[in-house]
Amino acid sequence: MVEAGQVSPQLLCLGLNYRTTPVEVRERVAFPESKVPEAVQQVRGLPGFEEGVVLSTCNRVELYATHSHDQPHAAHDALVSYLIQRFELAPEQAEALVTYKLDAAEAARHLFRVVSGLDSMVLGETEIFGQVKAAYQTALGAGTTSRTLNKLFQQAFSVGKKVRNETSIQRGSTSVGSVAVDLAEKVHDLKQCRVMLVGAGEMSRTCAQSLLSRGARSIIVSNRSHDRAVEMATEMGGKAIRFDEWEAALHEVDVIISSTSAPHFVIKPELVRDVMRKRRWEPLLIIDIAVPRDVDPQVNEIEGVYLYDIDALQAIADEGRRERQKQLTICEEIIEEQLTKFGFMA
């Protein structure tokens, strides 16, 4: 409840994504899942801030908050400073930190578009709905949301469901994982292809499901938690290997799709050179969909190796985007209708 004389809390969003910021900068400011509860407490603890939600995925980092500042730009500047200090960015890295700063209706509109998959690299992406929901639940559990953000995020989920149910924007390849498999299919005959998934999170699960539906010959899953690797491999009819054994099995596969939460490179040039010698330099496709990246970019310089990171998948995603572009107008109309319904003024 806002007391008489107090300034009503103002909604804002500070963000950066695959359009504004390259992966080598995004990975510097990505929040590990285990650190998000701490991060939302830090955001709410900034002077003048009252609520906070932190959304951090492979394609975006966004801070949603309410504040009591008279000047919204001062609140945005406080969030930029927080990111620079939190991740100890050097001056040149801070300079490359290109963000978008949204207030009130624009912040709400942006969140509605994100939840609906309209702001994703893959237009109509489905995973983002669950990622936003998880980010909100984390903030809710940490006690950093109140009336404004609770209402906003519930409205966003309602809009996302409406877009999904009333349009065909989410038909076809609607995830980074499925686009990664599209790329693998262009390079190899999946029915003759051996694939290794390094990591057993939701992104890897999407890849595995897409690989299975297209008849991949064999799927190997490796993950730090062996139980999760076994669970996914069993579900997909594949094979699980322990995380300390996957390097020894690399020469047996044709495609590696890596999506771990490691804060550093897990696939390095010296390892891949050894693998390629054992393969007698037969082509090896490596798709790195992790942020921070799992694969040292220098790997791409090795003969016979074709490395694609998350940003390199954008061209493939754009092909599907053109096919679904016609639905975009309908989706935007739904969002504008819902903004009016929920009382947001442009």
From TrEMBL:
Recite the UniProt keywords alphabetically. NADP, Oxidoreductase, Porphyrin biosynthesis
Q: What else is known?
A: During catalysis, the active site Cys acts as a nucleophile attacking the alpha-carbonyl group of tRNA-bound glutamate with the formation of a thioester intermediate between enzyme and glutamate, and the concomitant release of tRNA(Glu). The thioester intermediate is finally reduced by direct hydride transfer from NADPH, to form the product GSA.
- Domain Glutamyl-tRNA reductase N-terminal stretches: 14-167
InterPro entries named in the record? 4pyrrol_synth_GluRdtase, 4pyrrol_synth_GluRdtase_N, GluRdtase_N_sf, NAD(P)-bd_dom_sf, Shikm_DH/Glu-tRNA_Rdtase
Q: How does it assemble?
A: Homodimer.
Identification of the protein by name: Glutamyl-tRNA reductase
Q: Where does NADP(+) bind?
A: 199-204
Q: Which reaction does it catalyse?
A: (S)-4-amino-5-oxopentanoate + tRNA(Glu) + NADP(+) = L-glutamyl-tRNA(Glu) + NADPH + H(+)
- Occurrences of domain Quinate/shikimate 5-dehydrogenase/glutamyl-tRNA reductase (ranges): 183-316
Mind telling me which NCBIfam families this protein's record contains? hemA (TIGR01035)
Please name the catalytic residues of this protein: 58
Q: Which residues bind substrate?
A: 57-60, 120, 125-127, 131
UniProt function note? Catalyzes the NADPH-dependent reduction of glutamyl-tRNA(Glu) to glutamate 1-semialdehyde (GSA).
Q: Name one GO molecular function term.
A: NADP binding
Source superkingdom: Bacteria
CDD domains recorded for this chain?
NAD_bind_Glutamyl_tRNA_reduct (cd05213)
Q: Which family does it belong to?
A: Belongs to the glutamyl-tRNA reductase family.
* Gene transcribed to yield this protein: hemA
Q: Could you tell me which pathway this protein works in? A: Porphyrin-containing compound metabolism; protoporphyrin-IX biosynthesis; 5-aminolevulinate from L-glutamyl-tRNA(Glu): step 1/2
Stated EC number for the protein is: 1.2.1.70
About its domains, the entry says: Possesses an unusual extended V-shaped dimeric structure with each monomer consisting of three distinct domains arranged along a curved 'spinal' alpha-helix. The N-terminal catalytic domain specifically recognizes the glutamate moiety of the substrate. The second domain is the NADPH-binding domain, and the third C-terminal domain is responsible for dimerization.
Q: Where is this site: Important for activity?
A: 110
Source organism: Brevifollis gellanilyticus
- What's an example GO BP annotation here? protoporphyrinogen IX biosynthetic process from glutamate
